[in-house]
Amino acid sequence: MVASASRLVRRIIGMAQSVGALGVMGIYMVERVQGHEHHMDNIPEGETVSPDPIDTILWVHITIQILAFGLIFPAGMVLGIIRSRWHVPLQTFGALLALVGYFLGHLHKGRQFAPNIHATFAKSLMLMLFLQVVFGVYLKLHLTTGIHAKARKWVVLGHGVMGKFMPVVSWVQMLFGGITALGFCRADHTGQCLAHFIMGSAFIGYGIVLTILLLVGQIWLKRTGRSQEFFDSIVIAVWGCVNTFTEHRWGGPWVHNDLQHTSMGVIWWCAGLLGVWLSRKRDGRPKRNLIPAIVILLTGWAMSGHPQSLPVSTMVHSVFGYTLMAAGLTRIIEISFVLRDRYTLSEDGNDPNSFQYLTPFLLIAGGFLFMGATEEQMQLLSNAGVTHVTWVLVLYSFAFLMFLFVNMLLHLYATNAPPSPNPSSSTSQPPKINGNTANGHVRNTSESRHLRDAEEFELEGLMSEDESLEDSPVKRTERVV
Predict the structure, then answer these.
(1) I need a surface site. Which of 82, 86, 284, 302 has the fewest CB within 10 A?
(2) Given its phi and psi angles, is residue 99 left (phi above 0), alpha (psi -120 to 50 degrees) or beta?
(3) Is it the case that residue 150 has pLDDT exceeding 70?
(4) pLDDT tens-digit readout, 250-281
(5) What are phi and psi of 436, to 5 degrees?
C-alpha cells in the first residue's frame, strides 16, 4: 500500500513538473505574442494578403504544424487505440511541437494577412488540444477511487472521441491555412471554393473509409448485419438531398452550372434510395449491389464535361471526371467479378486482392483533383504557364502519399491490435488469424507482442496499480487516444 502511494506521488510530481514547464513556456510565448502586432499596412485595397513573400518563420510554422497535426497526432491516435506504450511520449512530443508552431504563427514577418478563418479556427483547435492534454494527464494519474471511478469512464470516453476527431479537425485547419496563405476563397469565390473543398474532402474521406473497411473492418461490417452498399447508399441519398436544394440560389436566374449541379443532386438521392432497397435479400440478409459504384461513375462522366472558363481548368476537370469514372468501374468489377457478391475473399478479410486497392485510391486521387481545381488556383496556374499535365501529376503525387500514410497507419493497427472474434465462425471452430488458431494454443506474432506489452506496461495509463485485464470488462474497453 505504501509502495503504491509512493509511486502515485512520484507520478503526480512528474506530471506537475511537465505541466509547469509547459506553463512557463506558454507564459513566455504569450508575452512575445502580445507584443507582436498584426500589421496590414502592405495589403493592397481589395486584397486579403500582401504581395510580400512568406518568410522563414512562417515556413517553419507551416512545417511544424503539418508534422504535428498531419503526421504525429494521427500516428499517436492509432498507438492509443492499440494501447501502445509509445502513445503518451509521441502525443506529448506532438503537443510540444504544436505549441511552438502556434506561437511561431504569430511571430512571423513578411507576408501580411487580413483577419481570416485560419487564425480564428486556430484558437478552437488549440483549446481542443489543451483538453486532450488535460484528459491524458488525468488518466496517467491512475485515480480510480471515489468520484474518480465514475469520472474516469467519462474522461476515457471524451479523450477517445476527441482524439479520433482530431485528424478531421486538423485536416480542416490545414486547408484553411493553405487558403489563407494564398488569399483565396473570398468574395464571389467563396461558394465555389466551399463546393470544391467540401466535395473533394468527402471523396478523400470516402476513400479512407473504404480502405479501413477493406483492411480491418470486415468483421465489424458482418456484425452490423448490413452490406457496405447500405451505408454508402444512405450517405449518397442524404448528400443528394443537400445538393438538390443548395446548388441554386432560389429566386434567382438558372444558369447551366446550377442545372447540372442540381440534377446531379437529384440523381444522387434517387439512386441512393434504390441502393438502400437493394442492399437486403428477401430473407433480410445483407446483399451487395452496384448502385453506389454506378453513381460514382455517372458523377465522373458529368464532371468530365463540366464547362469551364479556362482551358487548364477544363482539362483538370476532365481528368477528375475520368478518375471518378475509373473508381466506379473498378468498384463494379470488384463486386461482380473479383468478390462475386461476397464480402471478402478470405474468411477473416485479412487478405484482400490487389485489385481491391484501386477504388479507394482513385477516390482519394479524385478528391485531390477536385480540391485543386478551384477558379483561383486555375487562374494562378494559367498565369504561371503551368500545364494541366504538371498539375495533375502533382495532385496524384499527393494522393499516393495520402494513400501510403493511411495504409501505414492501418498496418500499425492490424499488426498490434488484439484479434477480433469473427461472427461467422462457429463456436466449435476458433477464429483463425494468419492461419493460426487464436484459442490459447497458438498465437500470431502481433497478438503475443500485444499481450506482452500489456502485461509489462499495464496498458500505459489505462489501468491502475490494482487493476488487471480480468477485473472489469469496462477497463478492457478503455482507450487512450
Answers:
(1) 284
(2) alpha
(3) yes
(4) 677 777 677 877 888 899 999 999 999 999 99
(5) -115, 145
What is the distance between the alpha carbons of residues 105 and 345, in angstroms, rounded to a whole number? Answer: 49
Residue 334, number of CB atoms within 10 A of its CB:
20
pLDDT for 121 beyond 60 = yes
Q: Report the distance separating Cα 463 and Cα 139, nearest Å.
A: 9
DSSP secondary structure string, 137-202? HHHHTT--STHHHHHHHHHHHHHHHHHHHHHHHHHHHHHHHHHHHHT-S-GGGHHHHHHHHHHHHH
Contact 261, 245 (CB under 8 A): no
Residue type, 172: V
> What mean pLDDT is reported for the chain?
82
b/e per residue 312-331 (b: at least 16 CB within 10 A): bbbbbbbbbbbbbbbbbbbb
Cell match 468478390: residue? Answer: 339
Calpha distance 401→367 (Å, rounded): 13
Residue type, 132: Q
327: amino acid identity, one letter: A
For residue 137, the model assigns a pLDDT of 92
Measured distance CA(471)–CA(49) in Å, rounded: 59
DSSP-derived secondary structure for 415-470: TTSPPPPPTTS-TTS--EETTEETTTT---HHHHHHHHHHHHHGGGGTS-TT--TT
Neighbours of 76 (CB within 10 A): 27
Torsion of CA 28, 74, 239, 119, to 10 degrees: 10
In angstroms, what CA-CA distances link 1 with 4, 150, 224, 463, 469?
A: 5, 22, 45, 17, 20
DSSP state, 26? Answer: H
Between CA 372 and CA 391 the distance in angstroms is 8
**Dist. CA 253–CA 11, nearest whole Å:** 67
478 neighbors 156 (Cβ within 8 angstroms): yes
